[in-house]
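thought: fold this chain, then report.
action: predict
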Amino acid sequence: MTSLNTRTVSVLFALVLAACGAASTTDTAEAAPAKPAVKAAPATVQPVSGPQVGDKIGETAADRAAAREKKAAERAAAAKKQDAELAARGVKRIGWEELMPEGEEERLAQMYQAQMAMLYSGAGVAEGSAADTMVQVGTFNTVKELNGKKIRIPGYTVPFEYGADAQIKEFLLVPYFGACIHSPPPPPNQTIFVIADKAIKMKDLAQAVWIEGTIYTQTQESELADAAYTIKLTGIEEYTY
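observation:
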């Protein structure tokens, strides 16, 4: 076999080294793990205008206060207009406190205190006795200047009879719900005996109404309560809250 010269050997050696290097490079590339993909930076979240989940939506305290003031002003304006219309007909709108003469509230307070002292004196109340009934505390003292005046006053009706077809011409007017039926009667000078010329059909036992008529300092007695005032009825309408 002919021996290779030095140049040929060098060339062959170089080719062998090149082949080995290529294979090594390829193996290394196949063995190396893949680099993780670079995640894109999240987009900047823009603030959302308007109400968000969990927000309480509604009027502010200032809005509610303004609404109350507006309604109060509207009621005052309506009452002033109505008072002017009533005055043109010679009618005055009054409250229950105007039925009590000067110093009557103090006298009434003393009478209530005396009654409470008697009830809670420790002796107890015998069932069926006079103390076991609803006692009407108060006086028949009236405001004389009201006698014969045309008035308009709100209150609750207490009819002497009641039924689906009850037509009544007489009933009591009291300042609070349940009086004379479920609770003690008001004082006589806080109870009005109402007389109507035409029968009235009552929708319910106790109705909130406005009554209009001529008031008299005339005492009336009944099984439900005694009244220091009497009104000759000329008009009745539902009281709206």
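thought: worth noting. Helices lie at 6-31, 61-88, 104-119.
final: tokens above.
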